[in-house]
Here is the input.
Amino acid sequence: MDSADYQQGLEKLHAGDRTGAIQAFNRALRVQPDWAEAYTQRAKAKFGNGDHSGAIADYTQALQRQPTSEAHLGRGLARVATGDTQGAIADAEQALTLSELLPAAHNLLGLIYRKVGNLSAAIAAYKQAAQGYIQQKDKASAERCVQTLGQLQARPLALPALIDVKTYLHQVSQKIDQQNYSSALADLNWLLQSDPQDAQAYCLRGIVRAKLSNAQGALQDLAAAMRLAPQDRNIQYQRALVRLALGDARGALADLKQLLERSPQQVELYVQCGSAYQQLKDYRQAIQYYGQALQLKADSAQIYWQRAEVREAFEDISSAVEDYQQAANLWFNQGNWPRYQQALAQVQRLQTRLPSERATLEKAAGLEELQSQLAQLVGGTWEIAERLLAIARQRYPDKSEVWYLRQVIGELERDR
Here is the structure.
């Protein structure tokens, strides 16, 4: 429903003109006497004007027409103001029945129990309220609950005691996986303000800062995490990943090899060592580590893909084709059509280079055979052969190496 009087009432209520709002809602209700929301809004205006009994009456009218948690909470507050604590408790509990995760209802219960002197029940209610506000990311309301709890208890209660930190950090990890870095960073900043001794939070924040290209902040956070939990393998592993992301492949390898000494069967350690050597352009070592990873996990299409990239960079095209093809086969069997197509495209692209590679190999084989023949003619002393080749290069410039070898061999055979 909508009416000009109702809208005018809302505007006046928001502007602080509660008396004008009540008059506007009166007009709206004369036209539509069953309008539950108009009763709720008029009740708010009456409560603000100190007419607690009138507010209770209007909230009751609203609840008879449309039960809502908002109306129960409003009536509960009005009942607290009139001293009807039992009625207020009933309203708060009914609000929770309609909306289970409603921190305002727990907050109301905390207020009521505190008012009647039931401190243990008040503490329990404020804890639940704080947890609810935390889930809603309402930091200000959560901190107010914490402050109240600090007053009620013998010692102040730290905010992390109110939350399941493991679950909270898992949710942050999900945000990182979804690349929602700004939200993850805000969550971690908030947690670390409350508990500056949480190693896992520092570790995750280091990862986020690395993703956001804040290298100095990332390294500081990971250093803090390692100081707090020096034996935590996951933190050291994450530090290795961040070092790798920042281009510090040698630092990453130092961490990874320490971890390999303690966990020689962990596939990801071999994979990341391969990535580090790939970053250093040490392709032989990269291929070796990817190979060790595949010995432990032969059905990993991704590792075949990564080794194929290295083999291609190493100019071992035929082996690269084999690895890309194996990756394609595995992704096909897994039903991963997009990755299958990507791998197949790499196979098709590289196959055009295979004939030239074969020609190069054949040429290399012929060159090796001529070098061996020349070495035999000079008695196995390659320094003599090299001097003869140098003379030939000066005498006949701009010829191929094969031509020079054949020329020197021919001259030696004629002189025999």
